[in-house]
Specification:
281 residues; 10-stranded mixed β-sheet; 22% strand
Length: 281
């Protein structure tokens, strides 16, 4: 890393804080016009966590970070206009999110890493594997949308009429916990909705070009259809598919589907660790 690249790293009270007996480092990095927020937990091979639309690190991954960080260095990010990362005068795109994460990892002097993307984060992980294959070891898609027909038709009608008042209250609360920007929640909501309305299919040839070992995880009552996950599984050469009982993100304790009686054993961490530790054939 060049000295000027190092200077792009803005440390924000890098003092360690405890989270479920873990040490956590947090900071900001100058990334393509953003001050991009990230958190780092644990030691070991790096695993990058990519949140979904309308979410923060904690609203998607708070329950599983302590489990994953027992054996891994976990790098969790917040993307443009989400959580503690500021906005810029551009629409959200999965391609730009992929480029932003690639730049962040370069700033942090990290080379080949594993990625776990949840929901929209899964689509971003797909774009990282397509656009930046040199930095990808393995990817986990939990799940990912690659085609408009991967969700029921009424999903698109809902997105066209999306209103902030209909956003899950848990996600609103999670945003306000970490951001004090008065208009930020509305901006995040509107840009996320527009991105989905404008979503275009990822071409088959790009999906088939993915060389990284891939694990696709989907709930049997997910937003994305099991048929779509199966199609992606057939297209990505080195891929595995797990269909888990439950709703969208229930298998990782995502905040809107988390049940009061959920336990560590309900989450799919052993499945993820087995996949990440498996040697390539």
């Amino acid at each position: 890393m060049q000295p000027e690249q190092k200077s792009e790293i803005i440390n924000s009270n890098m003092a360690s804080v405890a989270m479920d007996s873990l040490n956590m480092e947090s900071g900001y990095s100058q990334v393509n016009g953003l001050k991009m927020y990230y958190e780092i937990y644990g030691q070991g091979k790096p695993l990058v966590l990519i949140h979904g639309g309308g979410s923060t690190i904690q609203s998607n991954f708070e329950k599983v970070i302590p489990l994953l960080a027992k054996n891994r260095k976990v790098i969790a990010v917040e993307l443009q206009a989400h959580g503690r990362t500021n906005d810029r005068n551009t629409d959200l795109t999965f391609e730009q999110d992929a480029d932003d994460i690639a730049t962040l990892l370069k700033n942090l002097n990290m080379d080949s890493t594993d990625f776990f993307g949840f929901s929209n984060g899964g689509t971003t992980a797909l774009q990282i594997a397509i656009r930046h294959p040199e930095i990808v070891n393995k990817i986990i898609l939990g799940p990912a949308l690659a085609k408009r027909n991967g969700v029921p038709e009424q999903f698109w009608e809902f997105m066209k009429q999306a209103r902030l008042e209909n956003m899950p209250p848990q996600l609103k609360e999670a945003y306000h916990k970490v951001s004090s920007v008065p208009t930020g929640l509305q901006v995040m909501h509107d840009k996320d909705a527009k991105r989905m309305v404008d979503f275009k299919d990822i071409p088959d040839e790009q999906i088939k070009s993915i060389k990284a070992s891939t694990l696709i995880i989907i709930g049997d009552k997910d937003i994305i259809t099991p048929e779509h996950a199966i199609e992606m599984y057939r297209q990505i050469p080195d891929s595995e598919l797990a269909i888990i009982p439950g709703g969208h993100g229930e298998y990782i304790g995502e905040i809107t589907t988390l049940k009061p009686d959920s336990k560590e054993s309900d989450f799919v961490i052993p499945l993820i660790e087995k996949f990440l530790n498996k040697k390539k054939g």
